[in-house]
Structures are given as structure tokens and as C-alpha cells.
Design brief:
By secondary structure, this protein is an all-alpha fold. It has nine helices and no strands. Helix 2 crosses helix 4, helix 2 packs antiparallel against helix 7 and helix 4 packs antiparallel against helix 7. It is elongated and about 70 Å long.
């Protein structure tokens, strides 16, 4: 856990693109707000590997969004999923989809899966842009403030820091 947090801070401080970190957090939101062992989560994991998002941010985001989902969002997810699955005008569509194997494997007949995926889909764009703004603000304000501290300048000037940099890469 601490290693992932350290890697995330290293990614935030590095020259990696802010969109990679923001997209990692956004994709992790989908996995965190839906049941873990779902087919769509495997697709999201593969997508994260193909796009080459920051994996530290991705895995830490899964942990954060899973905790957030279990504490707060799951109640809403179940309500949204139940509302969609019990709508009379959608019954024929759900019956037709459930008759096909691929849709049965996606488990959209499960209220938590369907509701969590709908909430994650609605929140995808706002979370991406909020994460992007957060990364940029962190780099502009917090990182500059930390680098101006005397203790940081003393540590960076020491032999220990140069040794750390050598072994960290």
C-alpha cells in the first residue's frame, strides 16, 4: 500500500502526462464501483494495459473507489440497477439480452453490476476532467511549494538523495 502511494507520488512528480494519471483514476473508478470479478472489469484492465496509463494510480484508484463504492455508492447502484431492471418497458430487452450467452456473462441482470456501471458511465467524463485538473494543480502549486522548502533543498543537496535517485531508477 505504501509502495503504491509512493509510486503515485513519484508519478505525480514526474514528467508523465497528466492525462495518463487522470485516465488511470477514471478507469479504476469503473472497476471500483462494480463487482470485482466481472467480465467488463477484465476488459477495463486490458484497456489500461494497452493504453499505458499509470498503473500505480490505476491500482491505488481501484482501492480508493472500491472503499468509496462499498461505503456510499453501492446503495445507489442497487437502486439504479433495480429501477432499470424492473421497468416494464425494458422487460423485453432484458429478457432478450439474458437469452444470449455473452450478456449473461456480463451479469447485467445483477442490480449492483448494472447500477454501478451506469453510475460509473455517467461520472466518467467529470471524474476524468476533475482528476486532470487535480494533477495539474498539484504540479503547479503543491510541488513548487514543496521544492521551495529549505528542508527539501537541503535533502536534494545531500549525498543520500543522489544515492536514492541512483537506486530509485
Amino acid at each position: 500500500m505504501l509502495t503504491m502511494l509512493a509510486k503515485l507520488l513519484k508519478a505525480l512528480n514526474s514528467e508523465s502526462a497528466p492525462w495518463q494519471i487522470a485516465l488511470a483514476l477514471t478507469l479504476s473508478m469503473i472497476i471500483g464501483l462494480t463487482p470485482l470479478w466481472s467480465l467488463h472489469n477484465i476488459v477495463i484492465l486490458l484497456l489500461a494495459m494497452i493504453i499505458r496509463v499509470n498503473l500505480s494510480a490505476f491500482f491505488l484508484g481501484i482501492l480508493v473507489f472500491t472503499i468509496l463504492g462499498m461505503a456510499v455508492v453501492d446503495i445507489w447502484s442497487i437502486q439504479v440497477g433495480e429501477a432499470l431492471l424492473t421497468r416494464p418497458d425494458l422487460q423485453a430487452m432484458w429478457t432478450e439480452l439474458y437469452a444470449q450467452d455473452i450478456w449473461r456473462m456480463l451479469a447485467f441482470n445483477h442490480t449492483l453490476t448494472l447500477g454501478g456501471l451506469c453510475i460509473a458511465a455517467i461520472a466518467f467524463i467529470p471524474v476524468f476532467f476533475l482528476s486532470l485538473v487535480f494533477v495539474r494543480l498539484y504540479r503547479q502549486r503543491v510541488l513548487n511549494w514543496v521544492n521551495k522548502l529549505k528542508i527539501t533543498q537541503m535533502l536534494k543537496a545531500s549525498n543520500f538523495y543522489s544515492l536514492y535517485q541512483k537506486f530509485a531508477e
